[in-house]
Amino acid sequence: MMNHSLKNQCKLDIGTVIKGKWHQNQYTIVKELGFGANGIVYLAKSKGQYVALKMSDNGMSITSEVNVLKSFAKVQGSTLGPSLLDVDDWVRRTGMVSFYVMEYIHGLNFLEFIEQKGKSWVPILVLQLLTDLERLHENGWVFGDLKPENLIVQGPPPKIRCIDVGGTTIQGRAIKEFTEFYDRGYWGLGSRKADYKYDLFAVGMIFINTAYPKRFNKTVGGVHQLSQMIKAKPELAKYENFILYALNGHFNSAKDMRKHLLNIVNDSPSSSSTKKTVQTQSTRMQKTQSIKNSSSRQVNKQNKKHHGFLETFLIIFIVTLLYIFYILGQLI
Question: If you write DSSP's letter for every residue of 171-234 in order, what string do you get?
Answer without folding.
Answer: TTSB-S---GGG-TTTTTSS-SB--HHHHHHHHHHHHHHHH-TT----SS-HHHHHHHHHHT-G
